[in-house]
Design brief:
Bound molecules: nicotinamide-adenine-dinucleotide
Helix content: 25-40%
Distance between the termini: 60 Å
Largest sheet: 7 strands, mixed
Number of domains: 2
InterPro entries: Ald_DH/histidinol_DH (IPR016161), Ald_DH_C (IPR016163), Ald_DH_CS_CYS (IPR016160), Ald_DH_N (IPR016162), Aldehyde_DH_dom (IPR015590), MeMal-semiAld_DH (IPR010061)
Protein name: methylmalonate-semialdehyde dehydrogenase (CoA acylating)
Organism: Diaminobutyricimonas aerilata
Strand order of the largest sheet: 15-16-17-14-13-19-20
CATH topology of the largest domain: Aldehyde Dehydrogenase, Chain A, domain 1
GO molecular function: methylmalonate-semialdehyde dehydrogenase (acylating, NAD) activity
Shape: globular
Radius of gyration: 25 Å
Keywords: NAD, Oxidoreductase
Length: 510
Amino acid sequence: MTTTSAEAEAPAADGLPSVPHWIAGAVTAGSGERSGEVYDPALGVVTKRVAFAEQADIDAAVAAASAAYPAWRDLSLARRQSIMFRFRELLDARKGELAEIITSEHGKVLSDALGEITRGQEVVEFATGLAHHLKGEFSEQVSTGVDVYSIRQPLGVVGIISPFNFPAMVPMWFFPIAIAAGNTVILKPSEKDPSAAIWIGRLLQEAGLPDGVFNVLHGDKTAVDGLLTHPDVRSISFVGSTPIAQYIYETAAKHGKRVQALGGAKNHMLVLPDADLDLVADSAVNAGFGSAGERCMAISVVVAVEPVADELVAKVRERMAGLRTGDGRRSCDMGPLVTKQHRDKVASYIDIAIADGAEVVVDGRDVQPDGDPNGFWLGPTLIDRVSTSSRVYSEEIFGPVLAIVRVSSYEEGVALINSGAFGNGTAIFTNDGGAARRFQHEVEVGMIGVNVPIPVPVATFSFGGWRQSLFGDTKAHGAEGVKFFTQQKAVTARWLDPSHGGVDLGFPQN
Ligand code: NAD
């Protein structure tokens, strides 16, 4: 299957550049004939093709990661960390290049692309200090002359499967910790925006990472299933939609793997009557329409405790009038949606809202974008008086559509949040510390903001939701990330002592 770099990146038959796999420190076109189209969503045209892995490519990636594992595992922790330090410095210096790649395939505006890289970089920084987190435990003299201690060791080859909406940050939630802990990695990025992963592979190599420690396999269900079922892949870290997360969890677990599978979301912002409505309106607009709503921590429902809704809707609408939707390279506020199909699906919820009797305050279909007319545009959309029986309320839309639900009390708002399928993020806006404290205690959601609309925890904490937003019991990064990518040994040791007790078939009684 060996291909030269030039062959792997040669234009496909239709003249489009192709995005190759990255296996054992080199690009490869792979063994298969199948490929996917990569769009520039702001132009609405196919700009590249991405190779789709077949079984031979999956086997080659796993073989490369397996071959690299023993030497990488046995390299000193100090040396592994120093490579993370170099990677951090290179990434920081050159993140503008990566942001441009992200914007050209995802569509998000450049400043937002830089923001996602910065959040991923935090995890790289965490991994530079992994020695602290890998420290074991030690208990002296648990029995006469006997000590017990624990050791954390890597798993081996680990798989990461990531979604389109954060092509740099989500892989960086996982691989810095996995690699610094001594594992070798196969990343299967989204086929919609695959190039960021290859750029990262090259940068890791430049930072001194040995070949085969980080590999990228592109593709669809074939590539994913290949990783889920391969006997030499020890764990799977997945981020994506809930139905696929559940499938990943069940299939990987059935094949004996450790799994963390983060799913979809429908995040509510609860607004109490005493809140600062200017802060709320700014926050709702930022969290609802940033990245065109294609964020798992986007706010998609504002739950307004009356009597604030009329005033709040007016303030949100006023701010929306100032938003510029357009090409992410033109200093706009919001870019296009990722594909035409996704744009049309998101827009269809506006018709559903009308049919269900909601009030469309701002209709994003009327947007005049600052960009190519063929781009996948949908402007910020505000829908008031959304019924909780409407699909606009219950389903994850994953676009720039903000719903307002009016309730009469704090209790009604919390009951609503706790009754949904998802439990990723939520926020309360209030000036009442007691109410905020009660909310954090009562709400059944994994990440909570108090006057903070997108409460993504910093890298020293762990990221993950509850209920159908996370399958498995381990969140991403922070202490839970270290636990996920290591397995523990407990050693019970006694050094020769003349007082040992001779033969005794019973459990020791100290
Ligand atoms: P997706 O589930 O369609 O795809 C995610 C990954 O799974 C991709 O790599 C894709 O190639 C693969 N995949 C898709 N269909 C598959 C199938 N049938 N079998 C095997 N693999 C398959 O998700 P997406 O559209 O790329 O991303 C958006 C979704 O991700 C949203 O639901 C969003 O909420 C969620 N998300 C969640 C978090 C979180 O932390 N909980 C973070 C980011 C995104």
